[in-house]
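tool=predict chain=A
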Amino acid sequence: MRRSFDRRLAWGSTAAAALMMLATPAAVHAQQQRVTYSFDIPAQDLSGALRAFGQASGQQVAFDEATVRGKRAPALSGAYTADAALKRLLSGAGLSAQPTASGVYAIRAKTLLVATSAQSQAEPATAVEPEPETPSQVEEVIVVGTPGGKGIDKLSASFAVTTVNADDIAKASPKSTAELLTLVPGVWVETSGGVAGANVFVRGFPATGDAEFLTIQLQGAPIYPPSTLSFLENSSIFRVDETVSRMEALRGGPNPIFSNGQPGLTTNFQLKDGGEETHGLVKASTSDYGLRRIDGVLSGKLADDLFFMVGGYATRSHGVRDTQFDNENGQQFTVNITKRMENGKFNLYGRFTDDHGAWYLPFAVNVPGIDRGEYTQLGEASRFHTLQVNGNGATRSFDLADGRGWKGYVIGGSFEHDFGDGWTLRDRFSVTKGDANTYGLVPDGGAVTVSALNTVVPGAIKTRGGATLASTDYVQNWGAWIVEKQIEAITNDLSLSKTFGAHALSAGYYASSFSSDDFWTIGNFRPMQVKANGDYLAAPITCANLATAGSGSGCWGYGLTSAGDGRVDAIYLADSWQVFDPLRIDLGVRRERFKTDYVVDDGPGFPDGLAPRITDYSNSKTSYTVGVNYDINATSGVFGRYSRGYKFPSFDNFRENLTDTLSVDQYELGYKLRSGPFELYATGFANEFKGAKFADVGGIQESNSNKAHGIELDGRWRSDFGLSLALNGTFQKTEITKSSIPANKGNSAQRQPDWMIRFTPSYDVTLGAVDATFYGTVAAVDDRFADNANTQVLKGYTKIDLGMIFDVSDFTVQIAADNLTDSHGLTEGDPRSTSGANARPIFGRSFKVSVGYNF
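tool=predict ok
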């Protein structure tokens, strides 16, 4: 049943009021004193050094420009706690850093208070630091959404961005990279498919699934420029581990101008750096679903001004949905080398990954006895398959235990040099290569009873293993789907910036080339017993028999081989114009040329080498944006922005003869507050989309225009007695304004909720020699529709997570409970069948324990 938008606005007003009293979980000062960060800050003006400190550590620093003007900071290189680093930077400046109740370091002048008693006159004067006041300026530097990663204070940004530090990542304890994105307002994430293959929706942007409007960057460079291909989205080829220090997530804003021109969501992951001293971490994790995982990271100094970080993990697990074998297998190794120079920095990194897990599909959730939280059809009996691979009938053997994931590498780096007189050159580059394969067991139509099947095939119905099924048992068609992808990408983003009075100008050239060579054999449906790790039915039962019995099966098979090569060349110009002290106007324009060559051989039915289809495509578009930022005072401000961006067709669009370019118009109006213990970001948005043509594989093709509007809320508060609260929420209305299927006009966009809320309380307390943190999250989501026809309702649900962290000397112990109440909320239906027979629930309740040793 659809809720009225007025009710959602009421929810939004209530949440907005609550946000003034809520905050983010943050480490208490006692924890900050133990955590070390890696710095390579050259000697410079104190103001710049403090900003660099904030960027490197993720700590917020408050200071008055008048207080630090004319003061110099010495060079800082190595691993230091936040307290020690600030003490070094402030040495000789007559200033001190004092942590406020909100965790912000306030930079204040030291004051000499001389007592007048006879005793005190005989003693030397002692510097006494006053109580910190409300910060006049807070620095949290972000680099995403800026030309060449130039960086800007988050409070000064004229766009909506969320930052997640290493502590937040540890508390979230995500099972996949995409699951970490649930911390970002305006983003609806479906991670029920496993460690790879998530579905990510952004601000009402129309999509059938995958993550068409998500780009993942590593160190500021896209890991793969196309956001989504069939059976491949960016989060599938990226893994979060202990080598990551921070994530930044930018929605809309200047996204169409910089990097790969993604109009939706860009997330940038920053790696940890090395420092003067050698530090490391070893962590072991286990769970109630058979997890065996080891993480490690080591950082330090190789030579003068040359620093390193290495780390990675190895993991094995049979998964929350037990397939009877270790279906989650992975290892990753990352190295990060940084050279600090007098006027700049050079960085090189490499990440080598071999990680995959079972691809979980929708199943018959209404069959009696199904455990929605742990059920999977895949098991030892259905693991191995010999399948047709071409039109001549040739076959290959496959093991579905290979699941969905990534085996490859991402290598990249950056260079930055300050030439003086306001001139700065920046370059970021990356190379990606590897296999992103998908092997899975996919349903076809609904489940029917054996008694219904007996109307078509009389007599006993048996499995291949010899079990005789009862008349009340259920059977269903399932097929092995094999999609193999060899992908490559090279990206480079070069920018030059210059300050001219009130203008900060930037010009850049972005270039990327990418490819995907595919092999598919999908469909291949055969009847199975509906049972966890079920077996196939014995001959002579066929897929067609179940279709005749009323399952709704299509009983089809399809295969292809294809090769696609794409190239993007773009130039961009940006200007940040400080009109007068509180008012700044940000302008940007991008001219992009997209070219692709694509060839596909799909038969008919399977590749036969006789009549491949060839596409030679080229198109150019101009994107632009204008943003206005007004600082109300030192702790709050407002911004407004308009942007026009585009999404060019992908290889898969050409296969389906969909060659139109999607245009996206976005309007944003935001309010920002960061004062003392409070932090609030509220962003209203309105989007309009033209030319959205899409179809899920095997589904119905559709051409739409859409619009959406709503509000994103992100609020945080921290007390001075250890309690902190955080709340983010999204309230939106989506509408299909035009459709090639007339009946869908006026409906809501598929699989996008009208509201979602995430509330996270956290409490830090010292228990003797133990520093403890207790935290939890309550996440609630509204009803959604599985399809654009709005025929299948996915009911809203609430999910509760709890956790505890204990720090004892050099050891850290974490206990995390995911989905504590064992909620069985549905994330998606079956894109090939809108009858409601199949759906994919979230994972059931699980527990994980980690023990780490810091040295």
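Residues 1-32, 111-138 have pLDDT under 50 and may be disordered. The CA atoms of residues 572 and 590 lie 4 Å apart.
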